[in-house]
């Protein structure tokens, strides 16, 4: 599946439930925070756990750069709640059980069968500034998002 959203596009708004039971809309952050929105295949799988813990371990850096991290998978809410609790994830973990938000963003699939791993950096105005799509280079999702956020913070408004 080709990416439906491109750098420079306005990020589509969505409304999903978070593991903490809160309703989250992307538009809630507009004008206030940059957003690192990442889609991952499934909670509690090895690569997804490494990725989530990488975002967790760097979370203070994301906050210092004025960003919120949001993880999304198609897992049901109860599984997301367990994943967030088990790994002490300080950021929002959202359930997209029918993968509608994933499809809206055009987040890739592996071999057309398995949900892919895609990270979007969205600025405070809701514009997509960076997209990284890699199923296997998990650490780069975190490193590249931080690099782009540093660039956004250094650029005068």
TrEMBL record:
It is found in: Thylakoid. The active site is at residue 48. Keywords: Antioxidant, Disulfide bond, Oxidoreductase, Peroxidase, Redox-active center, Thylakoid, Transit peptide. One of its GO terms (molecular function) is thioredoxin peroxidase activity. One of its GO terms (biological process) is cellular response to oxidative stress. It is an enzyme of class 1 (oxidoreductase). Its main location: other. Its EC number is 1.11.1.24. The keyword Disulfide bond applies. GO terms for cellular component: cytoplasm; thylakoid. InterPro entries: AhpC/TSA, Peroxiredoxin_AhpC-typ, Peroxiredoxin_BCP/PrxQ, Thioredoxin-like_sf, Thioredoxin_domain. It comes from the Bacteria. Residues 5-154 form the Thioredoxin domain. It catalyses: a hydroperoxide + [thioredoxin]-dithiol = an alcohol + [thioredoxin]-disulfide + H2O. Pfam families: AhpC-TSA. Belongs to the peroxiredoxin family. BCP/PrxQ subfamily. Thiol-specific peroxidase that catalyzes the reduction of hydrogen peroxide and organic hydroperoxides to water and alcohols, respectively. Plays a role in cell protection against oxidative stress by detoxifying peroxides and as sensor of hydrogen peroxide-mediated signaling events. Monomer. This is thioredoxin-dependent peroxiredoxin. It comes from Parathermosynechococcus lividus PCC 6715.
